[in-house]
Amino acid sequence: MKLTLIRWNLPYKEFHKEHVCLARLDRYNKTRYSRRKKQEGLLELASREAHERQAVYFATILNDDGSPYCAMESNVGYFGLDFLQDNYADFLTFQYRSDSEHKGKLFLKAIFLFECYPGTTEKMRRTDFTYTHEGGCLSVILQGKEYDGTYEVIRTQHPTISAEELEKLWVDYPKFGEYDQLIRLDRIPQLARERILEYTDKEFPAFREYLQRDIDRYEQPTK
Predict the structure, then answer these.
(1) How far is the CA of 16 from the CAs of 10, 22, 31, 37, in angstroms?
(2) Among 3, 92, 177, 214, fewest CB within 10 Å belongs to which?
(3) Domains of the chain: which residue ranges?
């Protein structure tokens, strides 16, 4: 996979212009890179500085054909990654958080599944899986519409995840430009994985292939 520091515009399903990305970083981080006359290489410079300061910057992980695979946002102690279907609808989000008691580490605090109506990009249901450092797992399903009285929130406290699953939720704070460890799909605990596959097998079958790719790449075979 490849990487670009140009932000993917999720609502419009297209890349921002580079000068727009630079101006946005200036606005968020109170810098002045976009005012310089010669802007070649400035987006990387501004993003690298933001990474070192744990300020705001963006990146897009690309498939080998140059299409977007995952859109990334970084902020203070936070990395958010939105995975995209073939139609560029975001269907899965990872949210990593830092913790003062675990220096140099990020924890995969939340995994969100966005389900669309079949064959469309209109959101139908959202399922949030959140985890604690002790292995606690809570799922929250949000579905229906407020205007027609069908909106509901279903909360379920699940059994503690396994020690092996909990270990995978921790990751070293990444170096600038090196985000492979953040997008590992094999980090998804089994309960969330089964729910995601239930949806993607119908609407985005390629996800199962991506998941198996990461399992084969990172998981050690048991003897």
Answers:
(1) 10, 10, 19, 20
(2) 177
(3) 1-54, 77-218
Residue 58, CB-side half-sphere exposure with 13 Å CA sphere: 21
Per DSSP, what are the bridge partners of residue 128? 112, 140
- What is the full DSSP assignment across the chain? -EEE-SPEETTTTEEPPHHHHHHHHHHHHT--GGGSS--TTHHHHHHHHHHHHT--EEEEEE-TTS-EEEEEEEETTEEEEEEE-TT--EEEEEEEEEETTEEEEEEEEEEEEEEEPTTS-SEEEEEEEEE-TT--EEEEEEES-TTTT--EEEEEEEPPPPHHHHHHTEEEPPPTT--GGGG-GGGS-HHHHHHHHHHHHHH-THHHHHHHHHHHHHPPPP-
* 0.85 exceeded by pTM: yes
Q: Which two tokens stand for residue 214?
A: 């990461």
- Cα–Cα dist 132/161, whole Å: 10
Region 12-19: mean pLDDT is: 94
In DSSP terms, which residues pair with 56 in a beta bridge? none
Helix axes 42-53, 18-29, angle to 10 degrees: 30
- Report the chain's terminal Cα–Cα distance, integer Å: 30
User: Does the pLDDT of residue 223 top 50, yes or no?
Assistant: no
Q: Which residue has the tokens 């579905």?
A: 143
pLDDT in the model for residue 120: 85
